[in-house]
Amino acid sequence: METWQVEVIQAYNRSKFSRDETKKYELIVYKPIESVLQDGPQCGIVALAMAMNIHSCNTTVENILEKAKELLYTIQGELFDARVIPNLCQQFNLKATLHQWTNITDLIECLKSNYICLVPYDTDANHEPCLKKGHRAHWLLVHGYLKELTSSSNDFDLVLVRHGRSKNLGAFSLMDLFQSNKQLIEADPKRRLESNYCVPQNGSLRETLCNLFITI
Fold first, then answer.
1. Distance CA 124, CA 119 (A)
2. pTM score, two decimals?
3. Where does the record locate the signal sequence feature (predicted)?
């Protein structure tokens, strides 16, 4: 840990994982990113803005939001369809690629290949991944990876993340994030009844968020 950046140490120490002294971690990759807080249901737009900032795109949350509205991808900033993000990025001369998240290692390989990853998941009250079938769908940006060294599996690996609801860098379970992502099957029924959200017509997220992530 002595070679880790200060914010990485702080994120790890804040996490529940630091209390397990049997686990040892190696920082494999980390890209520092400035936090951006969301104003309203803009988690996807804000995560995208943070990703664009690291690539020195001269743009703002407001610019991305206006372009997404113009393309009819959103109403308030919500993004319930990962498939539109590559085209949205293209409007700002930034390449983004849609991936199927089939194996837990898919995300790891992308991080090791110098990408940062936008990932949809269900967020719990503490912002960590949970299993709500998509009713608490949220976006985060993965830009770091901690490999757990005492296990040959990836079950205890951590990812370093930022999202629009906290200024702090987070250290989340990669397995929890993977499991949360793959159970995104339907939007919150309340959202489907509200006209100020751009939600898939039948409310299903199986084709739009489930098992998907974006690399930039």
1. 15
2. 0.95
3. none
Torsion of CA 128, 196, 62, 39, to 10 degrees: -40
Q: Are 120 and 144 in contact (CB under 8 A)?
A: no
pLDDT single digits (tens) 193-208 = 777 889 998 899 999 9
Banded model confidence at residue 190, pLDDT cuts 50, 70, 90: confident
Give the pLDDT confidence of 139-183 residue by residue, as tens digits.
999 999 999 999 999 999 999 999 999 999 999 999 999 999 999
25: helix, strand or coil: strand
Q: What is the CA radius of gyration of the chain?
A: 17
> Nearest to residue 120, comparing CAs of 138, 134, 135?
138
Q: Are 137 and 131 in contact (CB under 8 A)?
A: no
170 SS3 class: strand
- Per-residue DSSP letter, 186: B
Which CATH fold would you assign to the domain 6-215? Cathepsin B; Chain A (3.90.70)
Residues with active-site annotation: 43
Q: Are 100 and 211 in contact (CB under 8 A)?
A: yes
Identify the bridge partners of residue 123 per DSSP, sorted by sequence position: 129
Which amino acid belongs to residue 112? K
Give me the half-sphere count of Cα atoms (radius 13 Å) on the Cβ side of residue 94. 24
Beta strands in 31-157 (DSSP E): 97-100, 117-123, 129-130, 137-148
